[in-house]
Structure formats: C-alpha cells, structure tokens
Design a protein that fits this description.
single chain; alpha+beta; Ribosomal Protein S5, domain 2; eight-stranded mixed beta sheet; four-stranded antiparallel beta sheet; 12 strands; 42% helix
C-alpha cells in the first residue's frame, strides 16, 4: 500500500471510522545553503516527491490523539494540557535526566497543535485524531520532520478553520521543532516544504522570509538529482548541531553584528584575528556558503544548471573542512559521484550522517548509483539507498 493508504487505514484502526481527510507535505532536498538559515542567511532548497500523510478527523471532545506507523502506542492529551507540556519538554529532558514527557515522534505532531494555538489563540478548536504515515526516509537529511509538521499543520489549519497562510504555517512548524522537540533548527526546512513548486527551487531570505521561485532547468537539460542516503542516522536534537549554532552566535558577537548574515568575505581577515581557530572556521563556512547560494541563483539564471557544479563541490568541502559536519560515508559518496562524471555533488542537510546529492546526466544515473554502492561495499560501509528526486509541489489535501 502507499503511505496515503497506510495513513487512512491506520486512522480507521485507531478510531473505527473514516478520516475526514488526508493531508500531505513533502520532504526537501537542499540544493545549496547549509547551516545558513539560523544565521538569517540564504538557502536554496526544493521540495521532493516523498511525502508525509496525515489522516485526520474531529472528535466530540477537546483532546488530541495521535498515532503513526512508526509508533507502538498512540499518544493522547487534552488540548488544554499542551501549554504545560512543552515548556518542560522543549529541553528534551530535564537536568535530572528523566525521560521526555511524550515520545519524540509525537512531539512533532502535538507541538504543531500547540504552536497553532499560540498562532491563532482566539480560534475555536475541537479535539482531533491524527494518524501519520510517510515515505520520506527518516534520518537521511531530507527533512522528514518538516514533512510531518507541514502535513499536520495543513490538516489542522483546515479542520480548525484557521485560514493561516503557508509562511505562517512554516513558522508554526519551526516553533514546534525548536520548542516542543528541542531541535535548534532554522526555518529553511519548513519553508521549503510549504512553498515547494514543481521544476523549481525556492530561494529563501531567512531574515525577511522573502522567497523567489527559481527554475532549476534540470529536466530540460537532461539532468537528474541523485540522492545517496548513507543510512548513517543523525538527529538535530543532539549536541553537534547545537555546538555549531553556538559557535556561529559566538562569532557574530565577536564581530559585533546581530548575525553572520551581516558579514561578508571582506570580514574574514578581521574574524581570523578575533576568533579561535574552530570558531573562525565555523564562521567562514557560513559567510562563504551565503555567497555560494547567491552565486548559484545567479548562475542558474544566466548559464543553466550545468554551470553550478563547482559551487556544489565547494559547498561540500566547506562543510567537511570548516563546519566539520560530514562523515566518511558522505565524503565517499561525493568523491565517487564526481569521479564517475557527476556535474557536482555535496552532502545535504544538517550533517553528521544523512544523504549526499549528485547532479548527474540522466543516462548516467544507474552507472553512478552502482559505482557508489560498490565503493561503499569496498570500504566496509553498509549499503546506501540511492534514488532520484525532482523539484515538486508543496502541501495538498489528498483525500
């Protein structure tokens, strides 16, 4: 069965009735612009065909019950309890080391309901049942979390007649992830999911939230985006992500600016004098990555997608050497794809595992996928999951 059918079936099993509807939202691939979003910088992601589905229906009380295909038991709370639940849970766990108040998977769903209550405090709400199923690979750096948030936000926006626009729903998803789940992410993932368009990437100014749809030209040029999921799982709520964010904030403070968005490559010599080596390299990645995003938008419009390969490669080198968020599997995936003739390749997502992407000729997909799989086997790594994606549309109601 499809993930849509799984969500509908799971809802019926949970409630004994059909859902009022099924809503979905996509995962995303970030073409370029990593760890720039929470620095109020620039990013260029696109939504992918892989989606998370939320089958939902109203209840006759004021409780919310959620379940998913990757949970053993449903989680149920009163809507009025959400305010008390998440200010504690947002720390992931309290200093005594006790377990979080709800399982992490359910915090993405319940956190959206909580954040919607804050975004539209005067709206009337009924209780709701929600069942989640997804075909977005979890832990691959393709933002399975933002897909959950987008699907649930879209469902509740309709069921509760909130009338919120896509950007506001993206902000709701980010708040849920930051404060309910405890992952210190920026807003790129939610914006990419909510604003996806077929055959285009979404250029996002993460300070103003201004966006522009940027045609990629991949299809017309006979190119495919190959995703190489290393199956090395990662989690944004663990320490490595937080440490990188803290370093960026420390670097901005040393430069005397609100965020690294306000710095340019001309500031790098002064930054080198002010900062320890690690902080400087973190800062250098963000500053140069912002410029690479702007250059990629310009090059796509002027010269087409075959001309962006060097920018993708430079981005990966910066994440590997300056931000230090790559892993051997990602480096091998990128190296092998480039050796086999990819136009460009880089890791994508928050790092510490997840996936790489390679921009490849359509007739070279199978050859490069086979070469990467062989290289992983030769290195003693587990087999990667390799597949193609294309820029796709954002949230929708499927049933």
């Amino acid at each position: 069965m499809s993930a849509l059918d799984d969500a509908r079936t799971l809802f019926t099993r949970l409630t004994g009735r059909d859902p009022e509807g099924v809503w979905s939202a996509p995962g995303r691939v970030n073409l370029i612009g990593e760890h720039t979003d929470y620095n109020e910088g620039f990013v260029l992601p696109f939504a992918i065909p892989h989606r998370t589905f939320a089958a939902a229906g109203a209840r006759d009380d004021h409780r919310i019950r959620v379940t998913s295909t990757f949970a053993t038991e449903p989680v149920e709370v009163a809507l009025a309890e959400l305010d008390a639940l998440f200010p504690t849970h947002r720390q992931a766990q309290d200093p005594s080391g006790s377990e979080p108040a709800v399982p992490e998977w359910s915090a993405y769903v319940l956190g959206v309901a909580w954040a919607l209550q804050l975004a539209a405090p005067d709206a009337a709400r009924r209780g709701v049942d929600i069942a989640i199923a997804s075909d977005v690979p979890v832990g691959a750096g393709l933002s399975s979390s933002a897909a959950i948030e987008g699907a649930v936000a879209s469902a509740l926006n309709d069921l509760w007649s909130l009338g919120l626009d896509p950007v506001t729903l993206a902000q709701v998803g980010r708040r849920a992830e930051n404060e309910a789940v405890g992952a210190p992410t920026g807003i790129m993932d939610q914006m990419a999911s909510m604003l996806g368009r077929a055959d285009a990437a979404t250029f996002i100014d993460c300070r103003s939230l201004d966006t522009e749809s940027v045609p990629t030209g991949f299809t017309a040029e006979g190119l495919e985006v190959l995703v190489i999921d290393t199956r090395v799982s990662h989690s944004h709520s663990t320490g490595g992500y937080r440490e990188r964010r803290d370093a960026c904030e420390r670097g901005a403070a040393l430069l005397g600016i609100p965020s690294l968005r306000d710095a340019s490559e001309a500031d790098l010599p002064r930054a080198a004098e002010l900062m320890d080596d690690v902080t400087f390299r973190r800062v250098r990645h963000v500053i140069t990555e912002n410029q690479r995003v702007l250059d990629t938008v310009r090059v796509l419009g002027a010269d087409g997608p075959r001309a962006i390969g060097d920018l993708l490669v430079a981005s990966h080198a910066s994440m590997r050497d300056d931000f230090e968020i790559s892993v051997p599997e990602l480096d091998l995936a990128v190296q092998t794809a480039l050796e086999q003739g990819a136009v460009g390749a880089r890791m994508t997502g928050g790092g510490f595992g997840g996936a790489a992407i390679a921009l490849v000729e359509r007739d070279g997909v199978d050859r490069i996928a086979d070469a990467v799989t062989r290289a992983f086997a030769d290195a003693g790594f587990g087999a990667p999951h390799v597949f193609t994606v294309h820029p796709s549309d954002g949230p929708r109601r499927d049933a």
